[in-house]
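tool=predict chain=A
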Amino acid sequence: MSDLREFAAARGVKYFMISYTDLFGGQRAKLVPAQAIADMQKDGAGFAGFAT
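tool=predict ok
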């Protein structure tokens, strides 16, 4: 299933945790509501490098 919004609706998912590991090995993450995941899937999460 390529559409995360459909995935969330079919399984009752309310939030997605989007994360990555920074250059120093620290975990960075943001919690995204399921209704906004289509924008994240299309445009990316937009992590701010200065917000540590």
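Residues 4-43 form one domain. The mean pLDDT is 83.
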